What does this fold into?
Amino acid sequence: MADYGRVLVSGLVIGSAGRLLLLRADYRQYPSFPRGYVTHLVLGIIAAALGAIAVPALAEKEYTAVTFLALAAQQFREIRGMERDSLESVDKTELVPRGSDYIEDIAKTFEARNYIAMVTALSTSLVVYLSDSIAAGVLAGVAVFLGVVYSLKGEKIGDMAEVVAAKIEFEGPLLMVDGVELMNVGLAKAREMYLTRAIAVKIIPRDDNARVTLGNVGQRQALVHNAATQLGVRKDVDEPEFMPSSGRNTESGDIVMAIFSMEPDIECLIEAVKRTPVLESSKRKPLDSPAGRKAAD
Amino acid sequence: MDTAIREAILAIVTTDRERVIHSSAPVFYAEDEEQRERVALLLSKVTSGMVHDLENGCLIIVKH
It folds into this structure.
């Protein structure tokens, strides 16, 4: 039997390093630090090990090793389920919930990251095996990693829509943002606070694809959640009138959003909205169909 | 399990008795607008509901 140590270890190391690079706890605080980190890092190492071991096993004509990859796929699906369950259970205690669409999107991302670790490890060990050069393997692994990560990079709201500041006003008790009704605010004091301290934006879709995508309720909940997380929300559980909300102009498809934030800085709100990811589940492309293109004329 | 009555009127606070005829939700009569606001606020804190204005002297409390 040939010396597969180099093949195995190089794949394992590069695959695990890839998973580590994709572990980032930013404003979302997800995965949580430090326990969430440990869970995902260990699962990533397992994924890399499975990818790295496939090449020596196949070289030794151990074709049953392929079933291990199937096992890995099963395990990664469970990661998606695990993420979904844990996020759904904590969503109940969020002041501004993420919503099921955003949770599904995050869960899918975590599943995909394990596949990335596995594919990176597999390509590294394959090249090390074929060329007998660790440097070539590392290079191939890095290239595959960067390629996959780049191709999985999602769109942001700023890519498909223009975000501008909007005006908050009241028509009787109705909270209006640029002419779109958001909600009925009954208490005079709450109305006054909205007028003096709340900020609002209007999101203008660039084309029909963006219009449909932005209309999705899950996407809008993600927008509101992101804005509230980054700017802070000035509300408590027993103050539903200060829940940030979004509305749709049914004529133009524009989305408006008002938030009673800790930091009433409109520039920051525009930035937070622009940087919100476009959720996979809300993405629609009517312009890719003949009927949708014709209707858009 | 967490159960709550949602999207239903939990209480009505009014300065005008004539505006509410029969109601399944409790009706609270207020002497003036100031008292009406106060009662509505207190009720909303208890029920975690939101206060809505019907512009006819009635405020309703709804849990969303």
In short: Helices of chain B lie at 33-47. The radius of gyration of chain B is 12 Å. Chain B is about 25% helix and 30% strand. The longest helix of chain B spans residues 33-47.
